[in-house]
Amino acid sequence: MNRHVLIVEDSRTQAMRLQLELQRCGLHVSIATTGTQGMATAQTTLPDVIILDVDLPELDGYTLCRTLKVNPTTAHIPIVMLTHRDEARDTRSGLEAGADDYIPKDIFAEQNVLESLRLLGIL
Prior knowledge:
The protein is of the alpha/beta class. It has one domain (4-117): Response regulator (Rossmann fold, 3-Layer(aba) Sandwich). The chain is built from five helices and five strands, in the order βαβαβαβαβα. Helix 2 packs parallel to helix 3.
C-alpha cells in the first residue's frame, strides 16, 4: 500500500523538490500551498503524515497543527514541521502545538525528513 504524505508549503519550488524525493521513496504525495487548503486536504484525504511549514498564507502552521490535533478525525496524523524558523522558542512552539518533529530548513533538511518518516514508520 502506498503511504500518503501531505506537504503544506507555500513555496512551490521547495514543495516540488521534497515531493520528488518522497516519490522516489515510493510515497504518494499531495501538496497544499496555504494553511486553509492544507486543513481541507488533511480532513478529506486523511494522509499518513503531514509535512508542515510554519509561515503559510491564510493560516499559520502552528494554528493549523493545533487545529488538526484537537480534531478527532485528524488527531492521529503525525505532523512534521519543516521551516526556516530555527530558534529554540520556535521549536518549542511547534512541539507544544502538537508536532511530532520539528526540522529546520537547512542543507540536511531532506535527509532529516526522511529519517523522521522512518522513525514514524512511514518509510
